[in-house]
Amino acid sequence: MWMRLAVIIGAVLIVVSGGGLITIKVLFSSAVSNVGQIDINPGTDNDSVVKGHALVGALNILLVGIDDGRVEGVDERKLEPTRADSIMILHVPASHDRGYLVSLPRDLWVKIPKYPKTGYGGGSGKLNQAYTAGFGDARGGGPGQAGGLDLLMRTIKDVTGITFNAAATVNFTGFTAAVKVLGGVTMYIDERVTSVHYGFYPDGSHCVPALFDGNGVAYPIKACKGRVFEKGTRRLTPEEALDYTRQREWMELGDGDYGRQRHQQQFIKALVQEAKAQGLTTNLPKALSFVKAVGGAVNMWTNNEELADWFLTLKDVAANNVTMIKTNAGKYNPAPVSGTSAEALSEQSKEMFQALRTGKIDDFLFLNSDWINRDS
């Protein structure tokens, strides 16, 4: 699962470190040194984060996938700006031996608190707008990723009651570097998908096949044919893998964000399988390049704990299964807001978050086994 791999680099180390203790130490050092660190000063009035002893007891980590809109061979001025595309919570019980990964719809309609650091006055909007409002204009002195994560944690706390021990962002474009090290990746395409980012004119030149309106709805551009990913097992180039895992429109099953999250999870599993198949356990230089590429895509707020201590605390989670939970049972639940395609949390989703807060998530999943994503 891509978010799990992004934050718990130890998962990669376990996969590729069969060469012995020295190899493990070298790879571990490489991963830790390559992960960027975000400095968030949440302030004394912020009840959305755990204050002190962030590695003790049950843990909640906010995971945000960043899409910077870049597509190789396409004019970047025609693409969408950087945004928070995937928002997840990794919950680890106090035993620190397993995890639960909960996806939050980015179109969830929420109340966003005021954020003086960027001059945002508060209001209602989609969940990913909280990240944008906190990010501000980094070039103009805004807080950037630190502010985006800070305001997003505050917003999610108000909606779900979850408090956070740490947070991380992943630039999914950065994962193409890991695929380049491997020379491509083989994965199963589970539905026919047409790209809204990358297409071709009749003369073979590249173009952007979709135009987005104010509600984020994609409309096809005449003469520009979007690249099609047909169902079946395919060998993808780094650029194709990035394009496929970014899609949420023009999908055969019409499953939007839920489909994209599933495809991203499938991609990371395929990436790890590719690394194993290429024998990285016996090729330390290639293993180092792979781990550096993955770590270079990650930035993390560690809540005043050492990054190495986070990896060591979560090492058993990386070695075991992480249960994927589908908010709203993986079904679109429209919000009662006119003029937008926003979503709302179902009453059962609210029960699920309460179970997560109170340590009763296993009881909830026993009664609601269809909320477990078994397709990733």
TrEMBL record:
PANTHER family: POLYISOPRENYL-TEICHOIC ACID--PEPTIDOGLYCAN TEICHOIC ACID TRANSFERASE TAGU. It comes from Rhizocola hellebori. This is Cell envelope-related transcriptional attenuator domain-containing protein. Belongs to the LytR/CpsA/Psr (LCP) family. It holds the Pfam family LytR_cpsA_psr. Residues 83-276 form the Cell envelope-related transcriptional attenuator domain.
